[in-house]
Amino acid sequence: MKFFIDTANLDQIEEAQSLGILDGVTTNPSLMAKEGITGQKNIIDHYLKICDIVDGDVSAEVISVDYDGIVKEGEELASLHKQIVIKVPMIEEGVKAIRYFSDKGLKTNCTLIFSSGQALLAAKAGATYVSPFIGRLDDISTDGLDLISDIRDIYDNYAYETEILAASIRHTMHIIDCAKIGADVITSPLSAIKGLLKHPLTDIGLEKFLSDHKKGS
Ligand code: E4P
């Protein structure tokens, strides 16, 4: 399973990269705004900074919602750097644009996926990734992990190459459950990734090993 970090915060991206487990980054307009990155030039510079830190795919989201606008914006984003993946919302115009990008060999991430039907359509259009938002489904008392399972079944039935990029991860158990189901990628806040490191028996065991070593020396 690939690990992406879901942030536009450069310090956190660097920290995840230094762990040696990072495969990519996802951003969205809200995450950029959270870091105070506004204005086209600053946004572009920020994507380039992210691409400098990480080796893998970096999702950059379009703001346009009409076909021509999505195509224009997406091509501009893709031309910035070979690591850029065009993030396109799951709307009718977005699906058409994904087909266009796919035919041109450009990578896409179809975002705001909340149903298996949407994921099926995105795969048919040739999306590289689909992003089902599991945390936001959980927030409205609908099991987000069920959606990951359903999409896994559908994609396996037809050997779709579109990768399931589980998004809107809220906590460490989401990552483990996505791995059990067979999501291809998770995109997560750094805190949930670092949660995977922790076990009290590891801490207790290490403390004992170190104190025993001290006694013997
Ligand atoms: C996915 O690419 C989105 O950036 C993200 O996972 C949304 O997560 P949220 O529901 O925590 O905003």
Explain what you see.
With 217 residues, this protein is α/β, with parallel strands linked by helices. The protein is 55% helix and 17% strand. It has helices at 10-19, 29-34, 40-53, 67-80, 92-103, 116-124, 134-139, 144-158, 172-181, 190-195, 200-216; strands at 2-6, 24-26, 57-61, 84-89, 108-113, 129-132, 163-166, 185-188. An eight-stranded parallel β-barrel has the order 1-2-3-4-5-6-7-8, surrounded by seven helices. Strand 1 (2-6), helix 1 (10-19) and strand 2 form a beta-alpha-beta unit. Helix 4 packs across helix 5 (92-103). The termini are far apart. The structure holds erythose-4-phosphate. Erythose-4-phosphate binds next to helix 7.
Question: Which features characterize this protein?
Answer:
11 helices, TIM Barrel, eight-stranded parallel beta barrel, globular, binds erythose-4-phosphate, 217 residues, 8 strands, alpha/beta
Q: Helicity, in percent?
A: 40-55%
Give the overall silhouette. globular
Strand order of the largest sheet: 1-2-3-4-5-6-7-8
Rg, Å, rounded:
19 Å
How many structural domains in the coordinates? 1
Strand content: 15-25%
Q: Would you identify the regions where 5 or more consecutive residues have pLDDT less than 50? A: none
The CATH fourth-level homologous superfamily: Aldolase class I
Q: What is the overall pLDDT average?
A: 98
Spell out which ligands are present.
Answer: erythose-4-phosphate
Give the tally of β-strands.
Answer: 8
CATH topology: TIM Barrel
- The assigned CATH architecture is Alpha-Beta Barrel
**CATH class division:** Alpha Beta
- Helix and strand content put the structural class at alpha/beta
Termini separation comes to 42 Å
